[in-house]
Amino acid sequence: MALVSETTTERVTVYTDGACSGNPGPGGWGALLVFGGREREISGAEPHTTNNRMELMAAISALDALSRPCKVDLYTDSQYVRNGISSWIKGWKAKGWLTADRKPVKNDDLWRRLDDANRRHDVTWHWVKGHATDARNNRVDGLARAAIQSMRGR
Question: Which CATH number describes the domain made up of 11-152?
Answer without folding.
Answer: 3.30.420.10
